[in-house]
Amino acid sequence: MPDGNNTIVAELAELVASIERQSTATETGLQELIERGTAHVAGCQYAGITLVDAGKAITNVVATHRYATELDAAQQRYREGPCVAAAWEHHMMCVADLGADERWPRYQQFALENTPIRSVLSYELFVDGSTTAALNFYAEQPHAFPDESVELGGVFATHVALAWSMMRRKDQFRSALASRDLIGQAKGVIMERFNIDAVEAFELLTRLSQQSNRKLIDLAEALIESEHPLKGRHRP
Asked: Which residues form the ANTAR domain (predicted)?
């Protein structure tokens, strides 16, 4: 790898570490990473991340320009394109010239008629049971990405996947803490209304969750907001 790229990789590693230290919001962190990619991957003008869930819904997570968002919408509509191919088939896709590449004809027609995009690089980011994603670089010129860009794009994909994984774990941890707090508040409401202890309150909340076929956290939130059927059953 050229010395200039080694410097970029070092800066990228520091950016990922900074995102972790600062507990940066997921969307903000990903946006910063793809903007850095747009600036450093030779030939790239725009970038974005495509997400594919278990139901095969295709959405744009972040983008540096509306072209990336519009092309993801086209891939959702036509169920084809380089970004979803990279995500579904678990590797990298390179489109040197959309005007000549006919692998995805409906996507190709949309891109040619509605955007100036002619070169695309897409890299699989991760597979997490129910979801997969791709990091995408775009350019208006055909043959915009030299071999050096393909290599550096792969390095960016690795770092984006790492950063996203860390941010998702932090999001899950924060969500778990919030859920614990809500359930604790709901237990307090039940303990006060029925004059029972914490264990009995949790058992009652669990039974209500099972009987109503509602998630425990949803039931707890509804109870706290005084929307649960228990409201009005207790009188001081």
From this structure: 163-224
